């Protein structure tokens, strides 16, 4: 049976099982040790070894910063799931102060490598920019000193597994600073997104010390195997965890987010505001074309990111400020899902899109472009629509949903795909 099929039903056990043999399987259900029981002659040593065998599995996950985003929310669910299964969970954040830190499960032990990070100006055009550059350099240097000093504590902590939470971050910390029996890297996106070759460099430098690469969809696993054949045998597909009950509980929290405007069809997009991956400018173009075609609607976007200014300029240039609305980062997005008529996920790149899963759990009709993993989430025409990465195709798909309330109702009632429904 292919690796991805073996592991599709045991995502948390698979991740938590990383201290045992590869493939990973049993750690959350066992003592966390694969050594046979041998009672030494010295009673005290025997008691110490028995205690070590009885301790819960210790899992460390390294993540840069917990700001609002799909990967961050998936990480929170993973931490909670590991703690639910009896693991001792340690979360190491490179930088303190992420917006989602207050939502970390209290059973998780949180460590910060840096208290601050220096943000350098894009260019130096005067005394003010020079001053900001100096301040950023001081903050960066002090943060580097903090990280080097604080990293030393992990050499003696003896983890069963250490996990780098993103492919885009270097696994140097888990490989060189953490004493772990097994080491893993999460691959949460299509490797095509790595246009600068950073993934290739990090795989080249560290793959001999990594025991497995955890891909969030079968598409991503196949793409990684094609792009990096040297690690093919270390790839495994494990879908992100879902928390359906938590999502449903959040539906009725707070007031109606859109206000009273009967008869208005509302589209909802939830994403990081980053043009290269999320195709933000294309969303504004599609919105303008649909309005020009006589299909009135509002488009609401939740999220923040580095390209918000670019998006705001495009909204003004297209003259759609009254109907294309940015809400920023929202701690609880689920009331927005409840009152939206259509969820639109029009990214260029994804790994396994959490917004698609959330829309399906909350029974909202969803339209998505053809990106990595989407065919594992949507059965086209049954529980959503999949359109090509083309403005005309996106407009045609959205137009059909805007015109046909029956189609929206039917797609909203469709279930999650069988492979993901159990997460």
Main sheet: strand order: 3-2-1-4-5-6-7
CATH superfamily of the largest domain: Glycogen Phosphorylase B
Low-confidence stretches: 1-51
Instruction: Encode the helix/strand succession as letters.
Output: HHHEHEEHEHEHEHEHEHHEHEHEHEEHH
Describe the structure.
Residues 1-51 have low confidence and may be disordered. The chain has helices spanning 3-7, 11-16, 43-54, 70-84, 127-151, 172-177, 198-206, 218-227, 244-249, 275-278, 280-292, 308-318, 334-339, 354-361, 391-403, 405-413, and strands spanning 58-63, 88-95, 109-114, 159-164, 180-187, 212-215, 235-237, 266-270, 298-302, 324-326, 342-345, 366-369, 385-387. The chain has 423 residues and is an alpha/beta fold. Helix 11 runs parallel beside helix 12 (308-318) and helix 11 crosses helix 15 (391-403). The strands form 2 sheets. A 7-stranded parallel beta sheet has the order 3-2-1-4-5-6-7. The protein has 2 domains: 3-241, Rossmann fold, CATH 3.40.50; 245-413, Glycogen Phosphorylase B (Rossmann fold).
């Amino acid at each position: 049976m292919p690796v991805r099929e073996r592991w599709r039903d045991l995502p948390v056990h698979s991740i938590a099982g990383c201290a045992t043999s590869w493939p990973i399987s049993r750690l959350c259900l066992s003592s966390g040790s694969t050594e046979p029981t041998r009672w030494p002659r010295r009673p005290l040593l025997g008691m110490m070894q028995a205690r070590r065998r009885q301790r819960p599995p210790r899992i460390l996950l390294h993540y840069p910063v917990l700001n609002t985003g799909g990967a961050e929310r998936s990480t929170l669910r993973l931490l909670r799931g590991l703690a639910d299964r009896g693991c001792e969970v340690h979360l190491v954040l490179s930088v303190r102060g992420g917006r989602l830190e207050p939502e970390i499960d209290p059973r998780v032990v949180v460590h910060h490598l840096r208290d601050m990070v220096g943000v350098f100006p894009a260019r130096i055009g005067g005394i003010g920019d020079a001053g900001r550059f100096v301040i950023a350099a001081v903050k960066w240097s002090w943060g580097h000193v903090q990280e080097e000093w604080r990293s030393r504590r992990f050499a003696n902590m003896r983890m069963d597994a250490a996990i780098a939470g993103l492919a885009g971050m270097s696994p140097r910390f888990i490989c060189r600073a953490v004493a772990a029996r097994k080491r893993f890297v999460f691959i949460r996106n299509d490797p095509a997104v790595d246009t600068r070759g950073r993934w290739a460099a990090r795989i080249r430098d560290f793959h001999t010390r990594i025991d497995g690469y955890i891909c969030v969809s079968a598409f991503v696993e196949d793409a990684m195997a094609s792009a990096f054949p040297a690690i093919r045998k270390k790839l495994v597909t494990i879908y992100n965890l879902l928390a359906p009950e938590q999502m449903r509980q959040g539906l009725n929290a707070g007031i109606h987010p859109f206000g009273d405007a009967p008869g208005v069809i509302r589209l909802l997009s939830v994403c990081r505001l980053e043009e290269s991956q999320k195709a933000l400018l294309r969303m504004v173009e599609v919105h303008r074309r649909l309005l020009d075609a006589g299909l009135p609607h509002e488009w609401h976007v939740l999220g923040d990111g580095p390209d918000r200014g670019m998006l705001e300029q495009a909204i003004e240039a297209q003259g759609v400020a009254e109907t294309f609305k940015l809400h920023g980062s929202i701690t609880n997005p689920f009331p927005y899902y409840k009152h939206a008529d259509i969820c639109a996920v029009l990214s260029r790149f994804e790994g396994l899109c959490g917004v698609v899963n959330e829309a399906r759990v909350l029974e909202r009709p969803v339209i998505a472009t053809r990106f990595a993993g989407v065919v594992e989430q949507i059965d086209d025409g049954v529980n959503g629509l999949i359109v090509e990465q083309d403005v005309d195709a996106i407009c045609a798909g959205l137009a059909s949903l805007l015109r046909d309330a029956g189609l929206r109702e039917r797609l909203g009632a469709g279930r999650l795909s069988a492979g993901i429904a159990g997460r």
